[in-house]
Amino acid sequence: MAFMNWNHIRLYACWCLCGLCWTGKAQSKSESIVRITNAGPVAFANAVVEIPWATVRAAYPQIDTAQVRVIQLATGKEVPFQWEKRGEKTIQHLLVQVSVGAGETVQLALRRGKPTKVTPLTYARYVPERFDDFAWENDRIAFRIYGAALGSRPDNAYGTDVWSKRTGQLIINRWYQQNDYHKDNGEGLDYYKVGLTLGAGDLGVFVNDSIGYIHNYRSWEILDNGPLRSAFRVKYDPYTFRGITVTMTKTISLDAGAQLSRMEVEVVHTAAGPLPLVAGIILREEPGVLLLDEQKGILGYWEPRHGNDGTLGIGCVFPSAPVSMSRQYGHGLAKLGVRSGDRVEYYTGAAWDKAGRITTGQAWLGYLQGFAAGLKHPLTVGVVK
Predict the structure, then answer these.
(1) Class of the CATH-defined domain 17-117+377-384
(2) Average pLDDT over residues 151-173
(3) Whole-angstrom distance, CA of residue 344 vs CA of residue 223
(4) pLDDT band for position 23 (50/70/90)?
(5) What residues does CATH 2.70.98 cover in the chain?
(6) CATH 2.60.40.1180 region(s) of the chain?
(7) Cβ-proximal residues to 6 (8 Å cutoff; 6+ apart), any chain
(8) Which tens digits make up the pLDDT trace of 62-74?
(9) CATH 2.70.98 describes domain 122-376
(10) CA triplet 179, 258, 206: central angle to 5 degrees?
(11) How are strands ordered across the β-sheet holding 331-338?
(12) What is the rounded end-to-end Cα distance, in angstroms, of the chain?
């Protein structure tokens, strides 16, 4: 079976500690064996898999994080990895990047030794030189949101922006420095128009049948910055909608090879019950292809072609499906609800046809459908001591 690109899926590792004899012989005390199993029908290509740090420590007490190599036993090749902290002082997960076919198991050895440096494939940063933008990217695509300094300007925007890339290199710093990113100089460009909309999958309040925009973020914090996953947190000032005061905090992460970012949004509000929210995609005036799959939780859009700039696909996937959806106020909308203090979690992102990987509307909607299927059948991790 051909591999699909499932590296974008945040894989919550189901793990177990097993005896030493499952391979027929005990392992060296200087290494630990990890099994990553795909029991589902979906193949994962270059997936970023997280292994809880407590699991690694239990299986490999002698581990030295500065002197460990991850080796795929079937090939003998070194596997890229990252120590993820999620903004904490201590390690939370070991992230590894592997491919696992449907019904297959991959075995990795954690061995003592100096690891090969992993080329950064993700990056995120605050951009004070461009009115408090916050931008993030990987080897496939780039995004940005808008900060408080832009709020008083006539070119203010609310939702998520997309930067179209056709290079595997990280371009955020260079494009901002050149300040010419609305023109394609060979690596891609920013032609996506956001304005005062939800843009590419942002979240708004939906009270009295109208979209309420949270405006621009106020503060930021980087939690991890590559090489395989970058994550950051932004906070918004409270806004009042029809007498309901709402405060949002967003934690956003992006994996290497991903088309979609993971959004974790904590919402504090004064509504008596669950607060109605919408995640939305701005629709263009010209005809495009819109998918509202409520049962599978897929909101997908293949935009009309934008002249020589090409075509973007925008999409959201909701693990909490089924989700009510509609076409309203120039957006494709997915309607959600959250009690004060709880979180909303979903994935949102984009693909550009000129990048050469996803070049048709059918392929883009198929990607989103496969992504949703992968969420229902995640990889599992077992560590053998």
Answers:
(1) mainly beta
(2) 96
(3) 19
(4) very low
(5) 122-376
(6) 17-117+377-384
(7) 42, 43, 44, 45, 47, 370, 371, 374
(8) 899 999 999 999 9
(9) yes
(10) 80
(11) 210-212, 200-207, 275-282, 331-338, 324-328
(12) 32
